[in-house]
Design goal:
- By secondary structure, the protein is an alpha+beta fold.
- The chain folds into 3 domains: 32 residues; 62 residues; 51 residues, no CATH class.
- 48% of the residues lie in helices and 16% in strands.
- The chain has 8 helices and 5 strands, in the order ααβαααβαββααβ.
- Strand 3 and strand 4 form a beta hairpin.
- The longest helix is centred in the first third of the chain and has 22 residues.
- The protein is elongated.
């Protein structure tokens, strides 16, 4: 390997580059990490992680009230991998994750569960429903169709559903 690479970084060091610049970047990362851990242990900074159990319970309530995983990720800028990890078991241990980033947990817990669904036909309100299940039973449509009617692309058509928080 050359003494100095073109783009020195810690990532390149992890991948195997041992030039002096990448080694310096890796050392700087570890020194900063140790400083952050020391500050956290003395209470100078809020903890980086939060317990995942209440977040998982809230996410389950949101899905039961009509939200979709994709919609939550898109509307509230939450990574899909995080939502997937919260709702499924770990592939090796078989247990759900135990902790989640504090910022992401706060974002998910801020999402309200009280919503209603307004059905529009030709841009005029046709009905208000408490859940997508109520809409499906009243109109005879499938849940998959109702979920599609909630997407932004469905608003270009004659009939669509809009989720309204109250």
């Amino acid at each position: 390997m050359a003494d100095v690479c073109v783009n020195p970084s810690r990532g390149r060091y992890v991948q195997g580059c041992r030039c002096s610049a990448c080694t310096a970047a890796n050392n700087a990362y570890w020194h900063q990490r140790e400083k952050d851990k020391a500050k956290e242990s003395f209470g100078a900074k809020a903890p980086y992680f939060a317990d995942a159990a209440p977040v998982r319970a809230h996410l389950t309530k949101l899905l039961a009230s009509g939200y979709t995983k994709r919609g939550i990720c898109r509307d509230y800028e939450i990574p899909r991998s995080t939502v997937r990890a919260l709702l499924s078991e770990h592939h090796r241990t078989g247990e759900p994750i135990k902790r989640i980033k504090r910022e992401t947990a706060e974002k998910i817990l801020e999402i309200g569960t009280r919503t209603c669904f307004v059905h529009y036909v030709n841009d005029r309100a046709d009905g208000v429903y408490d859940s997508l299940d109520d809409f499906c039973s009243a109109t005879g449509r499938t849940k998959k169709t109702a979920q599609f009617m909630c997407t932004p692309s469905a608003k270009r058509g004659k009939s669509y559903i809009e989720r309204v928080a109250y």
